[in-house]
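STRUCTURE REQUEST FORM
Protein name: Aspartyl aminopeptidase
Source organism: Mytilus coruscus
Requested output: C-alpha cells
Priority: standard
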Amino acid sequence: MNNKTIDGQRKQKVASETMAATDKVLGAAKQFISFVNKCPSPFHAVDEVKKLLVAAGYKELRETDPWAIQPLDKYFLTRNQSTIIAFAVGGNFKPGNGFSIVGAHTDSPCLKVKPKSKTNKSGYAMVGVECYGGGIWHTWFDRDLTVGGRVLVKNNGSIEHHLVHIQKPILRVPHIAIHLMRDHNEKFGPNKESQVCPVLATSVQLELQGNKQEDDKKPEGQEKQCDKHQPALVKLICDELNISPDQMMDFELCVADTQPAAIGGALDEFIFAPRLDNLLNAYTAVEALIETDGSLKSDPNIRLICLFDNEEVGSQSAQGAASTLQELVLRRLSSGGSQTAFEEAIPKSYMISADQAHAVHPNYSDKHETNHQAGLHKGIVLKFNSNQRYATTAITTTILREIALKSGCPLQDFVVRNDSPCGSTIGPIMSAKLGIPTIDIGAPQLSMHSIREMCCTSSVSQAICLYKGFFEKYPEVFSSLKF
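Status: completed
Returned output:
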C-alpha cells in the first residue's frame, strides 16, 4: 500500500468521524429545540422534565408522604408544579455520603397576565400584563404572541391543575409608527405599565361576533374569576381545556412568542430560540442524569438535579432556590445514619450552578473583559467574580477542570469588566445557605433576556458531556483531594 493510499484512507476516516460528530451535535440540538417549543412556561418545563424522567424509570414522590429511600432508587418531586428535584441513589450510597448536584432554573423573563387583565382602550380589547424579570422589553414589540401556563379547574368538587398552551398567535404589542415618534431609532424606552400592553381584538369585531364588552364592573366580591379577563381570552382557554368559564378558578399565564425555536446560520451552527436562559441547562441536566443510569451501581453518592422557579426575580419564593426545599430534601436523603449524617454529607458534596453565560458580542466587544471573551463552540464557561456574584472558588474550579479533562469536555473562563455590573445566579444563594462547595458555569449565548436568544448547537452536547462526566467522576476526583 503506497503513501497516497494511506493518506487517502486517513482523510476519509477523519471526514467520517467529523461527520459523525456533527450529526451527534445537531441531533442533540434538535432534541433540545423540541423541548423548548413545548415549554412556554415553567409549568410546562417541569411537566416535560417529568415525562422524560418517567420514561427513564423514575417515580414521583410527594413531600407530604414518608420516604424509604434505598440504593439504586430513582425518584423526583415537584413543588408548585414549577420546581422539580430528581435524584438517583448510588448503589454504594449510605447516609453521610455526598451529593452530586446540578442546579438550574425553569423560569425566564416574560410578560405575565395580570390577575385582573381586562383592559379596553381606544376601541381595542387588550390584556394587562406584568413584566416578570429583567427582560429586554422592546424585543416583545411586533411579535406574534400567545399564552401558556396553568389553570386551576373545579371539577365535581375537586380542584385540578391543567396546563394550557394556545397554539396560535392571539396577542401583539404594536410599535408606534416612526412618523409619530421621530426619535424612535435614537431613543425608545417604553413605559412598562401603559405601553407594553398586548392587543387581543377590536371591540367592533367582538360585538359583530356577539361578544359585547361589559364595561360595568360588578361589586367587589361578586366577580367570578372569568369576569376579570377578556371574554375572548377566557373562551380560548376554556375551549382548549373543554371546560366552562365557571369552572375556571384561577390561572398563571405567561405570554410567549409563537415563532418556534430553530437551527440557524449558514452552516446550521446556531440555535435561535426563546428561553435559552435557562431551559438549555434544565434540559441538559436531566438528559445527563438519565444517560448516566448505567454507572449508578458503583456510585457512593446521590446524584441530583434541582430545577428551581423564580431565579429571574431573586429566588425568594417557596419554590425558589432561596427556599428550604433543597435542604429539606437533602436532610431526608441523609436520614437513617448517624445524627450528624447530613452535616457529614455537606463537605463531601458539590453543586454545579448551571446558568447561561455571555458570549463575546461582535458588535460590542468592548463590553467584554479583554482576556475573558467566551466564544461559541469553545466549551462551557466557568464564571468568576471576586465579589461573590458567582460562587466559584479555586477548589471548585480545580475539581471541575479535572472532571472535564477526564471527560474530554472543553472549558473557557469568564469574568466581567471592573466597570460593568455583574448578574448573579442560584449559586451564591445555595452555597451560602447550605455550605456546599459550588461552581457557577453556563453555555455561552448572545441576546440574553431578549424574546429571542441565540447560542451555538455545540453547547447542548457539550453541556450533557460535562454533566455526565460530573455525575460519574466527581466521587473519584473528590477522593483525590489531600486537604
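Reviewer notes: The chain has ten helices and 20 strands. The longest strand covers residues 110-121.
Form closed.
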